[in-house]
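Two proteins, back to back. First:
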Amino acid sequence: AKMSKSKGNTVEPQALIDKYGADTARIFIIFAAPPEQSLEWSDTGVDGSHRFLKRLWSLAYQYRDIIQKSSTEINLETLDAEQRDILRQIYDILNQTKYDYERLQLNTVVSSCMKLFNLLSSVPTSFTFIIKEGMSLLLRLLAPIAPHITHQLWRDLNYPGDIIDAVWPATTTQIKADQIELVVQINGKLRSRIKVPTDATVEKIELIAQQDAKVKISLGNNVIKKIITVPGRLVNIVAGEK
């Protein structure tokens, strides 16, 4: 049954705070449901929120030396394709999170912070400036929801001042991806996915699709009769017997 005062099955927040801390309570309550909807209690959800904060703490200390010694200057001109792609993903998450804050969609704000955390967890340690930039953004975005842990980590990582006085992240111009992924269909059925340069011509896209190993196997002895390309989305190969 759902929690209700009349049913006497409500959960005292103080017990949750005493056991897990206020930040866990805030993360769980905000993440579990949008503010205008009812909240269904879940012990698993509480544990998950607590684990997320513990993982955040561990990752921050894993990257502590890197962050303290790294420069914050990022020159897009010197980045390779992998670095540009990671930074693009970070800024895409930032822009979406700021948009969700503006419309008070706080549960998706938490979801985006978790997504950013997962991305930072997989960044090569040699990308020091991206780690420093990404963690700075993550802590600031999460601070209104989990103010205590973000305040402490901000200090421990030697970011300037206190996080409460830090400049709110500015919406960042999206970095254009070097490649995009397209679906390849044969007679309307999904057969493969290909990556092509973002500025590739239709002719180039169709050539890459035809040279794809999975496409060749799926075609077998059939011949290509027509190719329909929707830029940015898919390539549909119409094939049949000779």
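And the second protein:
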Amino acid sequence: MTRPHLLEGQTLPAAPLQRRSQDNRARLKAAALVAFGEKGYEKTSIDEIARRASLATGTVYQHYRSKRQLLLALMDDLLEQLSQLDLKPADVGDPRSVLHDLLTRAFARDLRYLGAYRAWQEAVLADADLNEKQQAIHVWTTARVLAVLQYLQRLPGARVDVDLHSLATVLDRLFWSLLGQASRMPEAELQRSIASVTHLMHHAMFRDPRHEGGATKGK
């Protein structure tokens, strides 16, 4: 399933060809990520983004026609990063390690775009078109979570009676919620949260041998 392309249908200024223009676009994106992360969508202005990038306000409009279009570009970058995340486990041994490695790699990519996601959450509430795009994003990311769960269910010790579609939906919402909170978390707290989500997924997908052993002895 291909990712949603948020800039589809947008009339963008021509892509920069010169090195200086390419650098300016990168500076604008970096400045917008910081500003959106600190102030949110509504309280961030084009003027402020330009100032943080040390560029003239007119330079912004050479690359993006509006603040909304710039936000779409940043979120599109985030989805591209997610699409490049290899869902195939690096280690097919311990399922808990597989899950923890996957979540750690996911957040290592996503944390660079926390500012964009904070602004996106705010903008979606007042923009029906963005809300529609948000639903498409959830359909795509839920499908990717489902693919991981389907792989895990083929491993030894996996529960066979799990409603994978429902679990994938819940975990997808949890993933995005954690991403939205991560900007306000110290690194240690984020790692504890990743460990907690790992434990939740493992418990939902796999039987506990110790519990089953105790039940057998009780019989």
